[in-house]
Amino acid sequence: MTQQQVTTGHVVIAPDKFKGSLSAAEAAERIAAGVLRAAPGTDIRLLPVADGGEGTVLAALAAGYQRVELTVSGPTGEPVPAAIAVKDGTAVVEAAQASGLTLLPGGVKAPLTASSHGTGQLIAHALDLGCTRIVLGLGGVACTDGGAGMAEALGATLHDADGARLPAGGAALARLGLLDLGSIKDAFAAVEVVIASDVDNPLLGSRGAAAVYGPQKGASPEQVAALDAALTGWADAVAALTGADLRDTPGAGAAGGLGFGALALLGARMQPGIELLLELLGFDRAVRGARLVVTGEGCLDVQTLHGKAPAGVAAAAAGAGVPVAAVAGRLELDEPAWRGAGFAAAYALEQLAGPDAAEGESLTRAGELAELAGERIAEEFLRA
């Protein structure tokens, strides 16, 4: 078939990351390369996305936000490089940049002592820059400290009953005797904090931060119980000082209780991650007049249907009357399921690699296969 010019209307390419192989920006670029190979002259708008977890800052940078770099305290106290994204008084802060599991030295998990202090330092820097809106992306953190470390970085002090400063981490909160929030309330009086998260867990109990997410951070059953008890004392102390008990608020258990800390101490509100990120990235403007939207992620599965980035992109595109094609490393949804989620087509890198591909080949060849997916999309949707 000979190559032909695409008909009118641009194409928006808005994938999330393909974990373990391609960042969202890389995936967008490779899909775009394939589209252009099969349909030269296509007007393409790249808009890599995220759902509030890892990759949120990168998505904001790709959409024109300014990168601000600094060194902060990592989850176990070691200095780590991090960045926030800033534009027009809004700062995008990604907790995983400072407190992430991937930052643990040697990969050794520290469920009892890991801290959210570095996340607080990122927020403090945003305030120093004069930002009046902070978008806080949660997910992928190593700590279960209820946001206590974040609060310390913002000026709070935590002491035991003898007046000694508490060490970092969730377990130490069991010895909390005195909490002073300093000037946190005043500092955030004129600052809007929005949490980008789809987690609806409360802070405590069987669906709480320690019970549900503690084991992922290396906590044994005994440590989960200890962390939950420590977080109970933390919630009691915060409620006593603020006059509001938010431990049962949906989302308080996000990111080891960072959600609770932001809700209770920073006056934050929660918004579905992909919905908020699409708003920040200007998706509504990008999709206006589009012929097609292409989205994707590492695996299109049941979780995709519950608020993950591709489903959010599909819903937003549907609102604009634009069809959506999905590209995924693996496709675990059957056709009725992905069509029901709003996708007009779905392409899996595993399938494009061919039946004789070696195990893991779709990961090692992800960029090449994403380009092939772009070609297939152009052939199906864009060729006259």
From TrEMBL:
Pfam families: Gly_kinase (PF02595). GO terms for molecular function: kinase activity. The keyword Hydrolase does not apply. SUPFAM superfamilies: Glycerate kinase I. Keywords: Kinase, Transferase. Coiled coil: none annotated. Gene3D superfamilies: Glycerate kinase, domain 1, Glycerate kinase, domain 2. InterPro entries: Glyc_kinase_flavodox-like_fold, Glycerate_kinase, Glycerate_kinase_RE-like, Glycerate_kinase_sf. It comes from the Bacteria. Belongs to the glycerate kinase type-1 family. NCBIfam families: glycerate kinase. PANTHER family: GLYCERATE KINASE (PTHR21599). This is Glycerate kinase. It comes from Streptacidiphilus cavernicola.
